[in-house]
């Protein structure tokens, strides 16, 4: 059994070594390169186990990975920092011009995708002779529908798109993540019969309002307090420390209050990133503060994608390569198309969208570690194995296939 320090050391050494190898020899985008190398390492361990069964490398590495509570690591650790760092660099004045597009895709789009994926996945399970209750199919729809802000923001660093389209993708990925977690919480409560007060439509609506609106209010209040504190001093080390306290304290408080921590992080990050440089942060503090959060974002991003690649070692191979999880890739793509096309079609009467918006938003709807973490948070029920396998295949497909081919699609469709 490794100590927490030893476990973190192993992950950092692996991440640094793989990142260097990718940068020096392979040349893929950092996140995708780490994911592929993690997958390759997993496959090599599986093959080594077959060739040298007496070594038991697979089992030993699997035990180490099981010590990494992926769900808690992502949802209760990395997510707060990653969302705040992402929101910190978004220009709110420009994003406000795309508010209706971003808002509709982050709410109506996620709900529509959840319904389409849930129903189609349930029908596919029935055709495959698998007894998957509709409520659990909707749980899968809820956790796989939001795009992952880490994956989307990382891809946009390597793929240039028009500013309005970039804002649509960035804003949607930041906000639909918080909305998706709320919908997942409601769907899981209904499926597991846990209640959480969400026994019907009114209860679910009440829970949604408490989590989403409460999270936004908490993020604004905490962000404003931190902004005022930064405005009264000029000391970059203290102001960076305040931003750290803001992220960790607000996210922990949101969990205690039952509000959405992800939404609170996005709102707080937008407030600090936009009000701070204007009248609270000196040029020196801005360089250190934004540089610090950029570095945090890059390091956690790298560790997260390596973990996704290695996570295949703790999944059941017989379920992972079955027909139903593989079919989820097509079902999720079709649902994403509907969830993007409907808001764009409705809003196109009042909002200008660049040509190619629908195919780029559809193909650029990448899923990542948050979906895997939500799937791992499902209680140990019979349905968990098939949901986790489908989630993992969709995530890997979107990150590798869609992520690497998005640049070519943008070049062909966007003008």
TrEMBL record:
Residues 14-411 form the Cation/H+ exchanger transmembrane domain. Pfam families: Na_H_Exchanger (PF00999). The keyword Transmembrane helix applies. The keyword Lipid biosynthesis does not apply. It is found in: Cell membrane. The chain crosses the membrane at residues 6-22, 34-53, 73-92, 99-122, 174-195, 207-227, 260-276, 288-308, 320-348, 360-379, 385-406. Keywords: Antiport, Cell membrane, Ion transport, Membrane, Sodium, Sodium transport, Transmembrane, Transmembrane helix, Transport. It comes from the Bacteria. InterPro entries: Cation/H_exchanger_CPA1, Cation/H_exchanger_TM. It is a multi-pass membrane protein. Belongs to the monovalent cation:proton antiporter 1 (CPA1) transporter (TC 2.A.36) family. This is Sodium:proton antiporter. It comes from Teichococcus vastitatis.
